[in-house]
């Protein structure tokens, strides 16, 4: 009996110690941990699609290939786009030649205006001379030193000189107006040059877009394009998965969010690697519950209402470490959040 009592006492002591340790562990650590298995690895996957229409002439990458930003992914037949660039370049040259012609016309017009000014000055000098002659002939006719016929001739010459001045002034005005027309034509030609240069830039851009390059570092996936395939702008050819920039989206219950904040530490267990604990931290919280972003969000104002605990997506960033396994988007994860904060998590870990 004594031995049996000793065994029972030892068992009771162990049970008490275990319960005490469990209570202490819950009080100091477990009660601050929020967990969910509704979590998945995510990534900002880049969809690759062409901007121009044509046939794929070269598929430069294969499935699951690692690429760097700027790597050529595929090429589209560029013959039509080269022809358009040549056509647009010829149009620019033609517009510039038209400007040269107009500039020469304007220069000639300035010479014509100078000539009209000289002619006007000459006719005005003739008018002044005829005015002076008329005055002299009138004075002489009043004293009967010249005949009336001479006076009439002087009057006729004076009227002719005035008419010549009027014609010279009209010719000068016409030449000046023609210069204004040429200036307007030049402004129009300059606008046409700008349009032609814009067309050339667009044609060159389309030509450049026949070579599709990777926008980010990552791994090629879901490649559907093949050499010889006819594609249009927006046609998905492949995707690039940035495997070095992965994160985790954990859908916590709304009742678990109390006390959570950005920067808190997290321990992540990936189902594919159950024995490995990956460190991370809370990055941000979704602005609404997952139900609000669904295709058909619930409307509690209609029908019978049943209260359902909602889940809110929480984004967590992974701490980069040498020992991290090759993770891919879509893997299932179990997330443990320590709501005491990063410092407390590090202290508990030590």
Automatic annotation (TrEMBL):
Coiled coil: 186-213
One of the protein's GO biological processes: transmembrane transport
Keyword vocabulary terms for this entry: Coiled coil, Signal
Signal peptide start-end: 1-22
Domain of life assignment: Bacteria
PANTHER family per record: MEMBRANE FUSION SUBUNIT OF EMRAB-TOLC MULTIDRUG EFFLUX PUMP (PTHR30386), MULTIDRUG RESISTANCE EFFLUX PUMP (PTHR30386:SF24)
Protein name per UniProt: HlyD family secretion protein
Organism: Ferrovibrio terrae
């Amino acid at each position: 009996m004594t031995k049996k009592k000793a065994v029972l006492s030892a068992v009771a002591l162990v049970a008490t110690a275990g319960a005490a340790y469990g209570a202490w562990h819950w009080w100091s650590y477990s009660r601050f941990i929020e967990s969910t298995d509704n979590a998945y690895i995510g990534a900002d996957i880049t969809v690759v699609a062409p901007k121009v229409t044509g046939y794929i002439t070269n598929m430069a990458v294969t499935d699951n290939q690692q690429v760097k930003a700027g790597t050529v992914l595929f090429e589209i037949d560029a013959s039509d786009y080269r022809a358009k660039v040549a056509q647009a370049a010829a149009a620019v040259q033609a517009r510039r030649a038209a400007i040269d012609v107009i500039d020469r016309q304007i220069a000639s017009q300035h010479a014509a205006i100078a000539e009209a000014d000289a002619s006007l000055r000459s006719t005005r000098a003739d008018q002044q001379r005829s005015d002076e002659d008329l005055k002299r002939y009138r004075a002489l006719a009043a004293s009967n030193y010249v005949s009336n016929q001479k006076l009439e001739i002087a009057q006729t010459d004076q009227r002719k000189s005035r008419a010549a001045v009027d014609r010279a002034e009209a010719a000068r005005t016409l030449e000046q107006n023609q210069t204004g027309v040429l200036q307007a034509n030049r402004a129009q030609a300059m606008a046409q040059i700008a349009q032609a240069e814009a067309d050339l830039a667009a044609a060159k851009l389309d030509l450049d877009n026949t070579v599709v390059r990777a926008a980010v570092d990552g791994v090629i996936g879901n490649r559907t394009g093949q050499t010889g395939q006819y594609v249009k702008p927006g046609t998905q050819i492949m995707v690039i998965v940035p495997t070095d920039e992965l994160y985790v989206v954990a859908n916590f219950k709304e009742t678990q969010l109390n006390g959570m904040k950005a920067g808190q530490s997290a321990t992540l267990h990936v189902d594919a690697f159950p024995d490995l604990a990956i460190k991370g931290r809370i990055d941000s919280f979704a602005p609404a519950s997952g139900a609000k972003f669904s295709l058909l969000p619930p409307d509690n104002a209609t029908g019978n209402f049943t209260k359902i605990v909602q889940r809110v997506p929480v984004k967590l960033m992974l701490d980069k470490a040498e020992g991290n396994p090759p993770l891919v988007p879509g893997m299932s994860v179990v997330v443990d959040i320590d709501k005491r904060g990063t410092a407390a998590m590090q202290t508990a870990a030590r």
